Amino acid sequence: QVLLVESGGGLVQPGGSLRLSCTASGFTADAEVIGWFRQAPGKEREGVACLSKVDDSTSYANSVKGRFTISRSKVENVVYLQMNNLKPEDTAVYHCATERGYYCSGEYDTWGQGTQVTVSS
Question: Using CA atoms, how far apart are residues 121 and 9, in angstroms rounded to an integer?
């Protein structure tokens, strides 16, 4: 059973935008904390954005603040990551993930297979 399914990745030019979507099902749909992390070849995993459903509070990595926005549909168990002004260093596989607890801590324990984002001219 696939619990977190990401979509929306692709190839975009620097300065462009993409919106990623993540559909949660099963127990992940009940998770209070959901977010995105990314993994680039040869680099450590980086938490990008996180949202707590308790109060819709959000947190972002410094590298994406002001450019990325995480949001959710309260009806459809879908979480979005709007990415604007993309840079080549944003190239990575982006994973949707959930964690236990009520507020973002970066301790994800379930994640999807990911969607590739490539920023290149």
Answer: 16
- CA 95 to chain CA mean position, Å: 6
Q: What φ, ψ does residue 26 adopt, rounded to 5°? A: 60, -145
Q: Which residues pair with 82 in a beta bridge?
A: 19, 69
pLDDT band at 30 (very low <50, low <70, confident <90, very high): confident
Calpha distance 11→32 (Å, rounded): 31
Q: What is the pLDDT of residues 38-68, one digit of tens each?
A: 999 999 999 999 999 999 999 999 999 999 9
**Beta-bridge partners for 71:** 80
Matching residue, tokens 């990595």: 61
Strands 10-12 and 115-119: parallel
- Residues 6 or more apart whose Cβ sits within 8 Å of residue 80: 19, 20, 21, 22, 70, 71, 72, 73
Take residue 20 and report the two structure tokens written for it.
């990623």
